[in-house]
């Protein structure tokens, strides 16, 4: 019976060991790849969960604030309707209070309408005259997020007698629209009187309502975009 050489036996053992080592290396590589994939996938999932939680939190906060705003708006509307439809207005007549407020402090800069209104006061007091001033409609602020009264300087020049001049001053003071008189110049006699009144009246731009739109990014930072919408009002200039 032939004997297998010792060197051949050792070579076979080496081959089996190398094969086993290769299988172990492959298994280890696959295990490492699986572990790395699991770690990366877990991190991505955790980030996505954190992002979704941030979105949900902001939506919940917005929904809660919106609910409060709706309740406040309904309450405000009820109070406004009761105030606006009161049996007697702020000045004791049967007009709506909202119209009176807008007549007193219009929300639009309208120089021609204002001049026409003042001319009516001049003629109504028994005088003849004109209204002068600078029409700044092109530069006038028509809406604002924080509106405040804006001055409109004017000069009223009239001619009549002493009684009509006196009535003109009284009518300007009684006007529903506030008239701040800074200077009065009188000249003439009882039957022929010239009067010049330098005064300031006002208008208040429309309220521009703002709302915010938040874009939630896939990070801790979030960008906020502000948009505006305009609440329109109108009124006569008296």
Largest sheet: 4 strands, antiparallel
What pattern of helices and strands is seen along the backbone?
Answer: HHHEEEHEEEE
CATH architecture of the domain at 106-207: 2-Layer Sandwich
CATH homology group of the domain at 106-207: Ribosomal protein S6/Translation elongation factor EF1B
The CATH class label of the domain at 106-207 is Alpha Beta
Structural class: alpha+beta
Strand order of the largest sheet: 1-3-5-4
How far apart the termini lie comes to 133 Å
Q: What's the total helix number? A: 4
Please compute the radius of gyration using only Cα atoms: 41 Å
Residue fraction in strands: 15-25%
> How many strand units?
7
CATH fold annotation of the domain at 106-207: Alpha-Beta Plaits
| Percentage of residues assigned to helices | 40-55%
Which residues form runs of ≥5 with pLDDT under 50? 228-238
Shape: rod-shaped
Mean pLDDT: 81
Describe this structure in words.
- This protein has 238 residues and is an alpha+beta fold.
- Among the domains are: 64 residues; 102 residues, Alpha-Beta Plaits, CATH 3.30.70.60.
- It is 48% helix and 24% strand.
- It is built from 4 helices and 7 strands.
- It has a 4-stranded antiparallel β-sheet with strand order 1-3-5-4. The protein has a 3-stranded mixed β-sheet with strand order 2-6-7, with helices on one face.
- A hairpin with a 5-residue loop joins strand 6 and strand 7.
